[in-house]
Design a protein that fits this description.
By secondary structure, the protein is of the alpha+beta class. It has three domains: 106 residues, Phosphorylase Kinase, domain 1 (2-Layer Sandwich); 190 residues, Transferase(Phosphotransferase) domain 1 (Transferase(Phosphotransferase), domain 1, Orthogonal Bundle); 75 residues, no CATH class. The chain contains twelve helices and 14 strands. The strands form four sheets. Strands 1-2-3-4-8-7 form a six-stranded antiparallel beta sheet, covered by helices on one side. A three-stranded antiparallel beta sheet has the order 9-11-12. A hairpin with a 4-residue loop joins β1 and β2. α6 packs across α8 and α11 runs antiparallel to α12. The longest helix has 36 residues. The relative contact order is 0.08. The protein binds adenosine-5'-diphosphate and magnesium ion (MG). The site of adenosine-5'-diphosphate has 20 residues, from β2, β3 and β8.
Length: 392
């Protein structure tokens, strides 16, 4: 039994474990109920799995460190785990989960956060196959500002991949799992939370280099980590979502350059160029930060595409076509309604002893205000509905 069983309680009955949501190298994430408010929360527990498994074990609910020699490294992991929670708690953005509480119990540590009723992009990709460009861009519209909030506080995520982006039915996307994140503190030493992540395909050379080398090299190598490291992983994530192919390794990118990519038809050239730029193996050649990515002359076409508001999953051109047809239909329909209603309404106003001219004038103003308020809403609903019939 490596995880807490359903119905186990924590904090003297404050939280009740429901089931396991995910299990990684350093933690187990549970779905739980916050009993007093009867609401769902997600609780992450420090439990070292995978290759580090030998460090800890579980007896009943208790996590025990296997021997005294491992005590030190478990304590270190606990400190880093706490940093993950503190770091996430500092960040405030609707597309990042909120942390409610950190506590120690059962010989280990826990933090409580918002539960996202959804699935990871990996799960979605496994089920549906590659995603459309417009869907990927819809998710990027949510993830980029969330990442920007972290970057503004000098927090690099360092483990961006489809597994660590969750999406829900309403098309929201959340960047989760700051377990590998780093923060450049004021004294400009780097503090790491948990281990470094090396996920094949998402790991740029400067991050891979950290796994080799001496301690001295490490200090230097840490300086090579920055927003560009997340930008690489984000490019790799977009590539994986658009193609359902594991992104090329940086070695292959050095060798083959652009030929290492194979995009399906239907991906626009602006997005292809953008991914190739984001995944340049030399970090100096990548966008250096998100402002560079979106606002520099090179990033302009990408930001134009991102700013084209397309709230549906249909390709932009289809969305525009449906919009034009729906708008014509809705306005035409509205004018017909006004036409039919005009006389009876004017009669009512006339019977209120308002002069015919003023009556018509008031009526027209009311209709125009009503149209401005309601027509766009009705129109957008119709556009979304029609697009959703063909593009889920
Ligand atoms: N706040 C949350 N709400 C719902 N599910 C979550 C939440 N956080 C994590 N999960 C689920 O648990 C899995 C693992 O969580 P994650 O934070 O990525 O930890 P790790 O990868 O370190 O094990 C995620 O892929 C996701 O399915
Ligand atoms: Mg994860």
């Amino acid at each position: 039994m490596q995880h807490l069983q359903p119905n186990t309680t924590l904090q003297g009955g404050k939280y009740r474990i429901e089931n396991v949501l995910g299990q990684g190298g350093f933690g187990i994430t549970y779905l739980a109920t916050q009993v007093s408010l009867n609401r769902r929360v997600a609780i992450k527990e420090l439990f070292i799995g995978g290759e580090g498994q030998a460090i800890n074990d579980r007896r009943g609910n208790q996590v025990i460190v296997t021997n005294s020699a491992n005590q030190q490294s478990f304590l270190q992991q606990k400190e880093k785990f706490k940093k993950e929670a503190l770091r996430l708690a500092q960040l405030n953005h609707p597309n990042l989960v909120k942390v409610h509480e950190f506590f120690e119990e059962n010989g280990t540590a826990y933090f409580v956060m918002d539960y996202i009723a959804g699935e990871s992009l990996r799960t979605k990709l496994n089920r549906e196959g590659r995603l459309s460009e417009s869907l990927v861009l819809n998710y990027m519209r949510k993830i980029l500002p969330a990442l920007e909030v972290a970057h503004k506080q000098s927090i690099w995520h360092l483990d961006i991949k489809p597994e660590n982006i969750m999406v829900d039915k309403n098309g929201n996307a959340y960047l989760i799992d700051f377990g590998a994140s780093k923060h450049i503190e004021n004294n400009s030493t780097l503090s790491t939370s948990l281990a470094l992540a090396y996920t094949k395909g998402y790991c740029p050379p400067e991050l891979a280099d950290l796994s080799y080398g001496s301690q001295d090299d490490l200090v230097q190598a840490l300086k090579d980590i920055g927003p560009w490291t997340d930008i690489y992983a984000l490019g790799a994530t977009m590539y994986n979502l658009l193609t359902d192919i594991i992104p090329p390794s940086s070695n292959r990118l050095y060798r083959e350059g652009r030929n290492a990519f194979s995009f399906p038809s239907g991906v626009s050239s602006a997005i292809k160029d953008m991914i190739v730029w984001m995944m340049k193996p030399n970090r100096e050649e990548r966008p250096q930060n998100l402002v560079d990515l979106l606002k520099s002359p090179k990033g302009q076409s990408f930001s134009e595409i991102l700013n084209r508001q397309n709230p549906t999953n249909a390709p932009y051109i289809v969305y525009m076509l449906v919009s034009v047809i729906c708008s014509l239909f809705v306005t035409g329909f509205a004018f017909l309604v006004v036409w039919f209603l005009f006389n009876p309404f004017r009669d009512i106003l006339l019977s209120m002893n308002i002069s015919p001219g003023a009556g018509s004038f008031i009526f027209i103003i009311l209709v125009i205000i009503g149209m401005f308020i309601y027509l766009p809403k009705v129109n957008m609903r119709l556009i979304k509905y029609i697009c959703s019939l063909f593009y889920k």
